[in-house]
Amino acid sequence: MSVPSVPVTGIPADAPMLDVREIDEWDAGHAPGARHLPMSQLVARINEVPADDPLYVVCRSGGRSAQVVQYLAAQGHPAVNVEGGMQVWAAQGRPVVAEGGASPAIV
């Protein structure tokens, strides 16, 4: 099954994003305005998935988010995978923020 995907350059600045990385990765650096729901908690917290159409799903490099997009699509959510994940997001100069005022990093 192919997963709907979009390059970072194709994501609008105000696009709804769901970051599915674990808490330590999120704390180190994430896109401003993104929502956080770790992949490991997705099934238990499925009711917290935003109803945005489309919902851009991101992880570190695009692997976990592709799995989440496939799962969400099966549940009827219009989700799209962010190709290359936060690594490409940061490399292209998109904004990244960290929790607690630390210097943002993609880990």
UniProtKB/TrEMBL annotation:
InterPro entries in alphabetical order: GlpE_sulfurtransferase, Rhodanese-like_dom, Rhodanese-like_dom_sf
CDD domains reported in the protein's UniProt record: RHOD
Protein name (Swiss-Prot/TrEMBL): Rhodanese-like domain-containing protein
Pfam families: Rhodanese (PF00581)
Organism from which the protein derives: Pseudonocardia broussonetiae
Source superkingdom: Bacteria
Domain Rhodanese: 11-98
